[in-house]
Amino acid sequence: MTTVHEPAVTNAAGALSVWPASAVEPRGGEITVAGVPLAEIADRFGTPVYVIDEDEVRERCRTYRHAFPEAEVLYAAKAFLCRAMIHWVDEEGLGLDVCSAGELELAVTTGFPPDRIVLHGNAKSPRDLDTALRLGVGRIVIDSPSEIARLAAAVGPDGHQKVMVRVVPGVSAGGHEKIRTGTEDQKFGLSISDGYAQHAIARILDQPQLELTGLHCHLGSQITSVKPYLSAVRRMVGLMARLYEQHGLVLRELDLGGGHGIAYRPGEPALDLTALARKVRAELAEACTAAGLTVPRLIIEPGRAIAGPAGIALYHVLSVKQTGAHTYIAVDGGMSDNPRPALYGVRYAPRLVGRHSTAAPAPVTVVGRHCEAGDILAADVELPDDIRPGDLLAIPAAGAYHLSMASGYNLVGRPPLVAVHDGLARLLVRRESLDDIRSRDVGL
């Protein structure tokens, strides 16, 4: 994705290039975001703590609206969701893509219009579907043949529900094999090549209470090249042309999903949003013209690209230990608040904040506090050689898939989330306490 703003302050190495645009270093070692010193946030709210820049989120929403003015942009709630985030997304004119009754109910009870929400999921529970129908969700994406009959029965003969079909286009893309979802032989969607997608669509057309509005696909996550999306457009339009020939079916919508990659460390590639918008628009128009089809309305679903660069995770150093040739910096969080390095081998660029160090950089590995050898937050990174217990470390690009994937491992409690805006910090999600954990345990 193109950078929303130029970083306000950078050094020769572009050290703040993956931080929110409001990040500045007014004095050596002190970093402020939206005018708030990170060290003050750590002192006030404790660590670990997530920080999110409201203006960065809003500006990234606007960037998508400007790049795709004719498209429907849905924020992918799975990346990160809370009431404030729902409010920001709504005010910036985006729709919402949810994957569960929990995400859906949180959105609607916050005031988000249900007709601007799309429900996904490869295995939707009865509660998911019942909640979607009760709240009047805009569209439901059908992911398996069995869902068709279940949904039709739940809607009833006199009801009506708009649906889409998730199609597997056979395009491989994504930053790790575990997050590539556009290929054959994985759990999501219905394949074009084996005919399951076409068969499911024919069955939907036999259900008058289900209105098929379009096709959906999602190629994967952390994609930094435009080419896979262009391949997906060609294959999806090819299927739309066959459906028109067989059924006279004119589909009004084409959802290309999200997966737009961001840079986690300075110098890493990110998806060029301007190029994506221009080339996808041209490819879609050309393919539809060649097939004699009306160009459908495009839908895209960015999540990480909106929330990720807006977030920072703060940790205090608990210990520094030399083991063999390695130096291990242990912090007061870890895989319970960020499992992504263990799951996908993600690499971050942690930074010492709160004090100025003149020590030379040295290779270290930043590890978590949990009882797992794989609890590593940042392997083989450079930090000042005088790092000591009590120091504060900040990890940028931490706004997506951190709080949303946080767990209760070792019962340490999930961190709080703090928003910064115009020189002020406010709590959005409180820290999970031991009382919270105890209250769920009713076994005695």
Task: Please tag this protein with its features.
21 strands, alpha/beta, 9-stranded mixed sheet, single chain, 444 residues, disordered N terminus, 8-stranded parallel β-barrel, 12 helices, globular
Sequence-ordered SSE layout with sheet pairings:
Layout: E1 24-27, E2 30-33, E3 36-37, H1 38-45, E4 49-53, H2 54-67, E5 72-76, H3 83-91, E6 95-98, H4 101-110, E7 117-119, H5 126-135, E8 139-142, H6 145-155, E9 161-168, E10 190-191, H7 196-205, E11 210-216, H8 227-247, E12 253-255, H9 273-291, E13 297-300, H10 304-307, E14 311-323, E15 326-331, H11 340-344, E16 351-353, E17 361-367, E18 376-384, E19 392-396, E20 417-421, E21 424-429, H12 434-440
Helix pairs in contact: 4-5, 8-9
